[in-house]
Write a structure and sequence with these properties.
Layout: H1 2-14, H2 22-30, H3 34-54, H4 58-83
Helix pairs in contact: 1-3, 1-4, 2-3
């Protein structure tokens, strides 16, 4: 899900859409290249997921997975609707 969120974020950036998450936007602005900031945030998220998994925090991991599944679905729908010629 983190990879899919990364890819949809890159697609938004290519189309001139600003990052919606203020913390991710900050990380992207603090690095020499926004993609580096985005990669760092995604690595942190994966690391937190591994910590949840290793410490048996299945409920927290399930909830964050559902959240990111919704985010990715929303991003994909927005990309499709934005590129559709209705």
């Amino acid at each position: 899900l983190q990879v899919l969120d990364f890819l949809t974020t890159i697609a938004f950036l290519i189309h001139g859409v600003q990052e919606g998450n203020p913390l991710v936007r900050l990380a992207m602005g603090l690095t020499t290249n926004p993609i580096v900031g985005l990669i760092l945030v995604k690595l942190l998220a994966v690391g937190l997921g591994v910590i949840c998994w290793r410490t048996g925090r299945d409920r927290a991991l399930n909830r964050i997975n559902v959240l990111f599944a919704v985010v990715v679905a929303w991003n994909l729908a927005a990309l499709i609707m934005g590129s559709a010629k209705l």
